[in-house]
Specification:
Elements lengths: L14 E3 L5 E2 L2 H11 L25 H14 L3 E4 L4 H16 L4 E4 L12 H9 L4 E5 L6 H10 L2 E5 L13 E3 L15 H18 L12 H10 L6 H16 L3 H9 L9 H18 L2 H8 L4 H36 L6 E3 L8 H12 L3 E6 L5 E6 L6 H7 L4 E6 L3 E6 L4 H16 L8 E3 L1 E3 L6 H7 L14 E14 L3 E7 L4 E6 L14 E10 L8 E10 L2
Parallel strand pairs: 1-13, 2-14, 3-4, 3-5, 5-6, 6-7, 8-9, 14-15, 17-19
Antiparallel strand pairs: 9-10, 10-12, 11-12, 15-16, 15-18, 16-17, 18-19
Helix pairs in contact: 1-16, 2-6, 3-6, 3-7, 3-11, 4-5, 6-7, 7-8, 7-10, 9-12, 10-11, 10-12, 11-12, 12-13
């Protein structure tokens, strides 16, 4: 029997089984074995995600109260103010609330905080400003759960604040008119996997249902918002199971066929092939451009694009975000290099907690993410805000919960918040070293229950006869692939390299054979691996079996991720 024990790939990774070892000599055996390993059946709803499978929004705690109040506002034509956030989730959620409620006939204003000047959350000043403008109903999106001062002020003023959020609550809940947050201990709606925009979308679903019962349902199809719901869900690295799988599946269809004017301009700016739009498209091309606005300029720039109603204006706005994203990449790369140099000076086992007065507020979270992935544990990277305080962004890796880590450091922080994968807050004056110590202690506590995952997990070993167009087509049913729903990865064992071709952009194309059958494989970012491969070499190739869209028909290719040298 084939074993991974003692074997290291050309990229220096170790391989391990994702489930029980699966060995297949023909396509149906591979498919049925994969279904069994993942606890699925071909007739399951998992393979036919549909909006009809979404849960009743009124199962969410406080939803009936919130939807009743907002439906009343629509009927009575009350003005509404939306408190958003500057990242992709916050901006996307703000845009869907604004678009839908304006379509329902309401006057809707919104505010998005500036990352460096204001930080995350609803400020007391923002609540007062909305109230003084004559608004008595406010909605938050992707924020508000830990904004106790703002909610207290809203309550004092008689300003009805409906919070839609997904971040981990404090022990004390805000004094809001309604708190829609699946992370509440008394809620748990949709297994707590929704992002902020997802929560906002369920609120709209509930309001439309309320209005329909009263004969006042707006002539506006909420499904057209799902391109942005999908983008926010992927951008916030939500688990693509259950509810999120449905939202992203339908949202990707919307992106391919009928995106909003702003999203269409964004796709064009990123030079995306609309027929091949996937989760990766959002993660690598769309979300970074939306986030670039909040990182280097203002989240309102991205909001202007997502709510844009004129194609020419949208084209100009999308081009501006593209330029900002190019700038962001350079600043991020420079900051990451500086952070690595600082940590190297401090020593190998130092806590991954670092700040510098020269670092840009818009990239510290990205740098923290890169440090976390490089070292396999959470990282906190800070910058100096206008008041002189140190504000930190935290990122983690699988197995750690950043929101809980922040709560364990609460004595050192003000204005903090987060969920499993990310978060941030401001370090109290004079408490930097205490924060570093508490951070490290909190990491160590979580580390006790953290099992390091191998770099690459394998679903099974396939032989050449199993590499069939029918299997490649069936494997596409697992889309959308992402967090919590990994792509099936296979090892093509004991094959010989017939031909090697180096293509542009670090792409390598391999022709493989088992002596009887032949298969084309492509490897991206092959880099130095080419120097270790030669014709006639016996190898095992790790990757994904996919239809070959370029050749079409029943053509398939193996998208290689890594290689084992046999022998």
């Amino acid at each position: 029997m084939f074993t991974f024990e003692g074997k290291t790939t050309l990229k220096g990774n170790t391989l391990a089984w994702r489930h029980e070892p699966l060995f297949a000599d023909e396509p149906l055996q591979a498919w049925q074995g994969l279904l069994k390993a993942r606890g699925l059946h071909e007739q399951d709803d998992f393979f036919s995600p549909a909006l009809a499978n979404l849960p009743d929004p009124f199962l969410m705690q406080d939803m009936d109260k919130a939807a009743t109040r907002l439906a009343q506002a629509v009927i009575q034509e009350e003005p509404v103010h939306v408190f958003g956030d500057f990242d992709c989730d916050g901006v996307s959620g703000t845009s869907i609330l604004v678009d839908a409620l304006r379509a329902a006939g309401l006057t809707v204003t919104y505010s998005i905080p500036h990352r460096a000047d204001d930080g995350h959350g609803i400020g007391v000043e923002a609540v007062v400003a909305a109230y003084e403008s004559g608004v008595e109903l406010g909605l938050s999106v992707d924020t508000g759960t830990t904004c106790l001062a703002a909610s207290e002020e809203a309550s004092r003023l008689g300003f009805d604040l409906i919070i839609t959020d997904h971040h981990l609550p404090d022990e004390t809940l805000p004094q809001a008119f309604a708190l829609l947050n699946p992370a509440r201990e008394d809620c748990g709606f949709a297994e707590r996997v929704l992002c902020g925009t997802g929560v906002a979308f369920f609120l709209l679903m509930a309001v439309w249902k309320k209005l329909g019962e009263q004969g006042s349902r707006p002539d506006y199809d909420l499904r057209q918002l799902l391109d942005r719901v999908a983008m926010a869900t992927v951008a916030d690295v939500m688990v693509l199971q259950g509810v999120n799988r449905v939202l992203v599946h339908v949202g990707l269809q919307q992106l391919r066929t009928a995106p909003s004017i702003g999203m269409s301009a964004l796709l064009d700016s990123a030079k995306v092939n609309r027929q091949r739009i996937s989760v990766e498209t959002i993660g690598f091309y769309l979300a970074p451009r939306i986030n670039a606005a909040g990182r280097l300029a203002h989240g309102e720039d991205a909001m202007a694009l997502l709510c844009c109603t004129h194609a020419d204006e949208a084209k100009t706005l999308a081009a501006s975000l593209d330029t900002l994203n190019i700038q962001r990449r350079k600043i991020e790369a420079d900051t990451f290099k500086q952070a690595c140099n600082k940590l190297d000076v401090q020593g190998e086992n130092t806590p991954l907690v670092i700040y510098d007065e020269s670092w840009h507020a818009g990239v510290v979270g990205l740098v923290a993410g890169r440090l976390a992935r490089q070292h396999g544990r959470p990282a906190a990277v800070g910058f100096i805000e206008g008041s002189g305080s140190i504000r930190v962004s935290l990122r983690g890796v699988k197995g750690f919960h950043i929101g809980q880590l922040l709560h364990d450091c609460a004595d050192c922080l003000t204005g903090f918040g987060g969920h499993a994968g990310a978060g941030g807050g401001t370090v109290k004056e004079g408490m930097w070293q205490t924060f570093v110590s508490h951070f490290q202690d909190a990491v160590e506590v979580q580390k006790k229950s953290y099992t390091t995952q191998p770099a690459t997990l394998c679903d099974g070993v396939l032989t050449m006869p199993a590499m069939h167009a029918g299997l490649a087509s069936r494997l596409q049913k697992f889309e959308p692939i992402g967090q919590g729903n990994p792509a099936p990865f296979w090892l093509l064992h004991d094959v010989s390299i017939v031909d090697i071709k180096a293509l542009k952009g670090g792409v390598c194309r391999l022709q493989l054979t088992d002596g009887l059958l032949f298969l084309s494989a492509v490897m991206f970012k092959s880099g130095a691996l080419l120097n270790q491969l030669s014709q006639g070499q016996c190898v095992s190739v790790f990757g994904q079996l996919k239809p070959d869209d370029y050749r079409g028909g029943d053509a398939i290719q193996f998208v290689a991720e890594d290689i084992l040298l046999d022998g």
